[in-house]
Amino acid sequence: MLHSDKDREDGNVRYVLTGEGAGTIFVIDENSGDLHATRRLDREEKASYTLSAKAVDKLTGRDLEGPSQFTIKIHDINDNEPKFTKDPYIASVQEMADVGTFVVQVTATDADDSTYGNSAKVVYSILQGQPYFSVEPETGIIRTALPNMNREVREHYQVVIQAKDMAGQMGGLSGTTTVNITLLDINNNPPRFPQGVYQFTVPESLEPGSTIGMLKATDADTGKNAEMEYTIMDDQDMFQISTKGITQEGVITLTKTLDYEKRKTYTLRVQVENVYLDPRFHSRESFRDTATVKVLVEDVDEPPVFKRPAYIMEVKENAEIGTIIGSVSAVDPDSSRNIVKYLIDWRTDMDHVFNIHPNNGSVYISRPLDREEQAWHNISVQATENNSLMSHVPVYVRVLDVNDNAPTFDNVDEAFVCENAKAGQRIQTVSASDADQPAGGHRFFFSLAPEASVNANFTVRDNKDNTASVVTVRSGYSRVQKSVYLVPVVIADGDSPVQSSTNTLTVRVCSCDRDGNMKQCNSEAFTLAAGLSTGALVAILLCVIILLMIVVLFTALRSQREKMEPLIISKEDVRDNVVSYNDEGGGEEDTQAFDIGTLRNPEVIEDTKHRRDIIPDSLYPSTRRLAATAARDNTDVQDFIAQRLQENDSDPAAPPYDSLATYAYEGSGSVAESLSSLESVSSEGLQDYNYLSEWGPRFKKLADMYGGEESEDS
Fold this sequence. Notes:
Mean pLDDT: 81
Oligomer: single chain
Largest sheet: 5 strands, mixed
Number of strands: 41
């Protein structure tokens, strides 16, 4: 309540209020000065208001007293409950944690005035989640309250925490929140095999690297704590085991080939353990488990097995056909021990050089060998059983060398000698080559052929190093007397049996300078021997050219004369511009492929046509009818040709006047039909030709030939 000293309470004073909330939140009675609040005040919204008031004369409006400023403070009451900063809270803690392990801290705030009473003093308590967790009343820290909490038993917990003001006293306001707590996994459970013995059955033909089977151990833990490692404890090398990452299964695979005949069963001891261990809880030994795995091998019918992976055989190239060069051997690995047969894969021996005995596997020669043509032969031998199972083995045949080739000149077979050569002068050094390859290397011997040693112009001197020198025997050679000498050289090798050959060295006589360098050889010698001068040679060349010109001119004139002759000399000589109208039918049986009636007058076309595959009804047509038919046919053809001739004469695009147009007309066919053997439906021995004697005198010869043979046979 506001009151002015100037107010005599006679009703002449009016109070006026201004400031925060004046007229809206606060109003003043202008007559008495009483101050009222128009609505409920909230300290948490605004804790104080500053206002001013004054007294005014109602009659004059003059201020009776200056404005007075005052502050209204709102006193707090406990009208706000505590509120948590989160709802819900998410927290986690390891399983098997000790009692009192920190989990999470919750926080609640109260909007009331903390300086005024206990309205804002909050106390925490747990409404749900006991006896597993507890909360500190003043801090809101949640801790574990129960030891050995196992995630595998229960993983998730929901805890309800209450915050109450007024220090938790009666009448205080409260708020709640939910805390979702998850137990985190630790490796506190060892892996275990569901069963102690596993058994797998596999065929002996299983390829190395194939899967035998899979083991699956269980672990109650999750994540990395459930990762396992499998190990085969036995000392063996037939199998190995690995862990499949996603499913954590132990995969047993084969590392070597199985053999039922050698071993039928295998027993393995497999161990499983965790990869990551926590030594705080258990020792390493407790986190292992073992199981027994039995592998049974099934018998499979296998192909024959060769005793060697490959065979190498040697044979001399002069070995006779049928010579055995070696043998292969294969056995049936199965207990039945079936008989094995051998054969050569002819795709590896297209020339059939070798063959093999099917029963004992002996490989022998079937064609002559030549080492110089092919030194190695690579073939494949197959071994098969009665059940068609087959295996292969490579056989490498080396052809050994035999001295069967004679040495010959090596590249050089010509030499020259100067006219002024002296006796004993070397004119050429020759060497030899041999297709054979002796083990000790080549050794060649050179000599002059015996038949050339009499009155020899040259001799051969062996250099003892697989070469020989051709040496002159006399001095002075003349190109005019003799321009070419043939020197036979005998070359023999040093192998057994000795092979030799006579090779001819051509020696040309040439003119040389003083230093022995060749100037001209025997190409000029022939000219000099004839005694012809250069002028004579030029005259001969001119005569030859003139003769050639005369021959060419005569040939040209003859060709021109032939072109001027008419194209058609006689009716029988038609060589160009032949217009042919032709249509090919389907053969003897195709009687409808082409109808010559289209070339005739439609008015005279026969309505009835005889079939050629049956005997005609009328075997003896009258002469008059045949003549009429022939005349009528000739008339049709003549009319057709006349019509085509007129069309060609009037056609400016037609061929020239001397062209010949040919039209083929087969006629109506013979009344006896076709005698072609292609139409016979049975063999000659089964055909009845008696009907030929009924066809008249024209077929009497055929009737005697066929009908007579049948009667003689009968």
